[in-house]
Write a structure and sequence with these properties.
The protein is of the alpha/beta class. The chain has helices spanning 16-28, 38-58, 71-84, 99-111, 129-138, 160-169, 241-256, 258-279, 314-320, 348-351, 366-381; strands at residues 4-5, 65-68, 90-94, 115-119, 143-146, 173-177, 196-200, 211-215, 284-285, 299-303, 323-324, 355-359. The strands form 3 sheets. It has a 7-stranded mixed sheet with strand order 2-8-7-6-5-3-4, sandwiched between helices. The protein has a 3-stranded antiparallel sheet with strand order 9-10-12, with no helix packed on it. The longest helix is centred in the C-terminal third of the chain and has 22 residues, at 258-279. The structure holds pyridoxal-5'-phosphate (PLP).
């Protein structure tokens, strides 16, 4: 049985072109980029070419891209150094951030004097802009706002440009976890006055274990991993050249094909929603994931109308039928604590029902969706 992979927000398969290029580099370009001999210099050249190309997608300087082991490390780097080195005394965030941000903020709060405020989350899963404005206006110490661009569980989109300008107006720094949007949305950072963002290659058909932080120049960020002077002193450790080449290749292909792939994936999402509405009455769409303006084209999060006894085994039953999807964030799929995101706006009643995230890629097809809808319909109708 070939599995139907609808868990692309957790991770994506590596594109063949990316894997081929990485294999080539792994064999040929093995010098340490910090070595001064010719093999080292070749690696350094490849590294800096990748950095330059990546920076060009966002209209920023190469020196503003710092390679990390992924999105989690990029978030940690920004949040921890902002408090330790940039004098941030107040963090404004939300309770629907990925754990890479929320658990990091909690850890910082427990060991420092930083104050943390949370922006209210509205019923549709978006953060309340009026409340953010209020919190910013009341803050009279150095403040960092950390709000994600695309929510990884429910897909809601934050208006990055609006929030960036609001932060500028109130002289606050702005960090956004853009792990779910880099490679899926164009971000021109010469127009968006954002200070930091985090990205991860495995969300756009690149390899796992590599990502980057964008850090606006002149801010003085310091490393959280100390050692050598790599990455302009911001992140110690020998750079993984083949992974960085994989990231660069995947990102370039993603941006070259952005419009056509977006249209295709969006049509799959629309088809999924239409078919599900037609076949499963009373299905709920969490947040505003059936609204194409407010929610990303890459995922839906559905609340299925079944009795509570069926809930615990629902994901397992889909897995048995060869369908890979998840409860929300991949990091919590194995835990029973439920979604911290859905808890913010769903009723107690709705929280007892199975909520499942289906996330799409250009490798999915309409016939796969037909199959999934058929299975969902059978599972919903099956007696408990
Ligand atoms: C929104 C968001 N932030 C951060 C991360 C963590 O990224 P990484 O897996 O590269 O550490 C993820 C991945 O699940 C994510 O979806």
């Amino acid at each position: 049985m070939t599995p139907i992979y609808l868990d692309n927000a957790a991770t994506t398969c590596v594109r063949n072109e990316v894997a081929d290029k990485m294999a080539l580099i792994l064999k040929s370009t093995y010098g340490n980029p910090s070595s001064t001999h010719s093999l080292g210099r070749s690696s350094k050249t490849v590294l800096e070419q990748c950095r330059k190309r990546i920076a060009s997608h966002f209209n920023v300087k190469s020196s503003e891209i710092i390679f990390t082991s992924g999105g989690t490390e990029a978030d940690n780097l920004v949040l921890r150094s902002a408090v330790c080195d940039l004098g941030v005394q107040h963090i404004i965030s939300s309770k629907i951030e990925h754990h890479a941000v929320s658990h990091t903020i909690a850890a910082i709060e427990s060991t420092s004097k930083v104050m943390v405020s949370y922006v209210n989350v509205l019923k549709d899963g978006t953060v309340c802009m009026d409340h953010l404005q209020e919190l910013l206006a009341l803050s009279n110490v150095k403040t960092l706002v950390s709000l994600m661009h695309i929510n990884n569980e429910i897909g809601t989109i934050l208006d990055l440009e609006y929030v960036a300008h609001l932060c500028k107006k109130h002289k606050a720094l702005f960090h956004s976890d853009t792990v779910q949007s880099v490679g899926h949305y164009n971000l021109d950072l010469s127009l968006i006055p954002i200070d930091f963002l985090a990205a991860s290659a495995h969300k756009f058909h690149g390899p796992k274990g590599i990502g980057f932080a964008f850090v606006r120049s002149g801010l003085g960020l310091q490393p959280i991993i100390t050692g050598g002077a790599q990455e302009r002193g911001c992140r110690a450790g020998t750079e993984s050249i083949h992974d960085i080449v994989g990231l660069d290749t995947a990102l370039s292909i993603a941006y070259q094909n952005l419009e056509s792939e977006k249209q295709y994936i969006q049509s799959l999402k629309a088809y999924f929603i239409d078919r599900l509405k037609a076949e499963v009455s009373d299905v709920g769409f969490n947040g505003c994931c059936d609204n194409f303006e407010k929610s990303t084209y890459t995922l839906v999060n559905v609340c299925l109308p079944v009795s509570t006894e069926k809930t615990p085994l629902f994901l397992f039953q889909l897995d048995l039928k060869g369908i890979a999807c998840s409860k929300g964030s991949a990091c919590q799929s194995g835990s029973d604590s439920g979604s911290h995101v859905l808890r913010e706006f769903l009723s107690e009643e709705a929280l007892k029902k199975p909520s499942i995230r289906f996330s799409f890629s250009k490798y999915n097809t309409k016939s796969e969706i037909d199959e999934v809808i058929g299975v969902l319909k059978d599972l919903v109708l099956e007696p408990a």
